[in-house]
Each structure stands twice: as C-alpha cells, then as structure tokens.
Design a protein that fits this description.
The chain is of the alpha/beta class. It folds into two domains: about 140 residues, Cobalt-precorrin-4 Transmethylase, domain 1, CATH 3.40.1010.10; about 120 residues, 2-Layer Sandwich (Methyltransferase, Cobalt-precorrin-4 Transmethylase, Domain 2). About 30% of the residues lie in helices and about 15% in strands. It has ten helices and ten strands. α5 packs across α6 and α9 packs antiparallel against α10. The structure holds S-adenosylmethionine. S-adenosylmethionine binds next to α7 and β10.
Length: about 290
Amino acid sequence: MTDPQEAIDAEAAVRTTKRDSRIEERTAGERQDGIPFIGAGPGDPGLLTVTGKQLVEAADLVVHAGSLVNSELLEEYCADAEQVSSIGKDLEELIPLMRDAYENGRTVVRLHSGDPAIYGAALEQMDALEHEGVPTYLVPGVTSAFAASATLRTQLTLNGVSNHVAFTRPQGKTLEPEDDHIGEFVEMGDVTTCVYLGTHAVADTMDRLLADGHDPDTPVTVVYHASWPDEDIVEGTVATIGERLEAAGYRASALVIIGAAAQKTGYERSYLYGDWANRGTNESEADD
Ligand SMILES: C[S@@+](CC[C@H](N)C(=O)[O-])C[C@H]1O[C@@H](n2cnc3c(N)ncnc32)[C@H](O)[C@@H]1O
C-alpha cells in the first residue's frame, strides 16, 4: 500500500490541474460505485437520510466513528454486518481494511457522525482509497449544529439577531492559538458561533473571551448529545457557562452555541412573509 500521506499528496496534486470528472457527471445524493462515506446524523437513527439507511442496510462491512454513532442505529439497520469502530485506528490500518473488503467483493460503507464535511477527516481516507483504486463518494448527513438548533426549537440564523453562522472549534492539539477565531466571531455580534470539539474546553474558551473584553452576558447554550435519549441542555452566559457545565459533568459530545439565537428573543418577522410575499411578482429568489 502507498504511504497514506503520499497518496493524499498525489491525489491533491492531480486536482491542481484537473477537476474530478465525476463532479460534472454526478449529483450529490446519487448512488455510485465504490465506498460511500455516509453522514450518520447526530445520533437518532431517524435522522439518517433515506439513502444512507438503504446503503447501511445493504452493507457487509460498516466502519463507523465509534461512540458518536448511536449503537441503536447500528443495531436497527445493520445488526448482521461486520461492524468496526475507527476509534484508535490510523489510516495505515483503516485503508487496507476497507480496500481489501471492497476488492473481495464485500459491500463496504464508512459511517461518520453528523455530516462528514464537518470535522470529519473523510477526505484523507477517500484520497488514500482512491489512490489504491477504490472509488469513493459522499452521502451527506445532519450535522450536530442542526440537531442542536432543533433541540432548542430555534434557527441558527434569525432575522434581526443573527445573520451568519460559524462552525468552529477551539484551540488545542489540532488548532494553534492564533487559528482560534471564536473571539472574532463573537465580536461580530450577529454571528451564531457553533463550537464543535470544545466541550472539555468551555471554561478555558470563556476565560479567553472574558480576558479579551467580550460581554460577560453574551448567551452561551450547550446541547449535549442532541437527538439522543439522554440529550440535555445547559444554559448560561460567557461568565457562567463554565461552572454550570462543570456541575453538569459533560466533558465531550456537546455542541456549544454562542449567541442570542439560542434564546429566540428580540427577533423580527422576516421580509419573506411580509412585504416580499405581498409584492405581487414572481421572482425566483427568496429566503426560505
Ligand atoms: C469529530 S466532530 C464530528 C462532527 C460531525 N461530523 C457533525 O457533523 O456533527 C465531534 C464533535 O461534534 C459534536 N457532536 C457530534 N454529535 C453531537 C451531538 N449529537 N450533540 C452535540 N454535539 C455533537 C461535538 O462537539 C463533538 O465533539
């Protein structure tokens, strides 16, 4: 097997001169040959897409993202398949596992939590497999920020409150302090900042925001295990959420939402169901 990093570099190099022809030939959602990288959604088996479910049901080998993929989903949809958690496995182990199964005629699916496009590390696996001659494709899923907004019965964009959404993560092993932009998003005022991979670091993140002079009363809402049976919500502010979260005892598997959209107050009715609806023309573009 080619060294995974070399394979990734080689596949990326090809893309600098030539666009993948499948981009024009295929639509997202279309079944293709090869190994599908499927978004399992946030946890509730009902939040897997119809296509994702059909593919999982037909699989002989399901490689999944461990504890963030609800075992209920695996039991319901692929109890008879071989199930392998990717936790603790590097590319050197994962790629031959999937390649060999595929080449031996088995139906292989790769299940990522939420949507593979958000902190999923899917592309490196896809590139390494493609380099080995195994085709791959993506089947999108519901990212946890969307499940968390449904939990809170709100919108991440809310007229008059939040015009933008940032999907981000705090500094740590992967991100250098200078690449942590949470403070900048909060500073903008009309951004709903969705912090992934930051449950364990909420107190530190809030301390940095306070040290940088951000409003201590800025709302912060933490949604633990959105869509799971033990889903929970911890509410607070930049000043209080660290302590409240520590008291609740959650150190992982939560989405941290900074901004007023979670509170659903102070928003304005939208133009879409006001003046725009009444203007009597048939323009095709509108907010939806
Ligand atoms: C490696 S990232 C994967 C994100 C995933 N690809 C997605 O689209 O949701 C894992 C992080 O996603 C968030 N997460 C995943 N599932 C969640 C859930 N059901 N509820 C809240 N947060 C979740 C947590 O912040 C967790 O640390």
